[in-house]
User: Fold this.
Amino acid sequence: QVQLVESGGGLVQYGGSLRLSCTASGSIYISFSIYNMGWYRQAPGKQRELVASISSDFRTNYTESVKGRFTISRDNAKNTVYLEMNSLKPEDTAVYSCNRDSNARWDWGKGTLVTVSS
Assistant:
């Protein structure tokens, strides 16, 4: 079993910034570095969407709506993936979670709520 714990969310004004963290733990077999990881978000009444991903060799991809504003990174020594979010907009309001960028995902963590006020 792998546990994912997200943190760093909060209430921020339009144009503000936040840095989210997600740490994986629990399984002695985990080799975090080999997994492609992603940050997902789910806004009220909407489906969960993948907003950013980072491969095992540090290639990154972003959904169009966050390109140029969000940056995903990872620290394999800490089993942690980060999401730096700048120029936040009210439409970025959602619960943010991390997981494998794969159909074979781990159990979801609780996520961290990001609320952007206008």
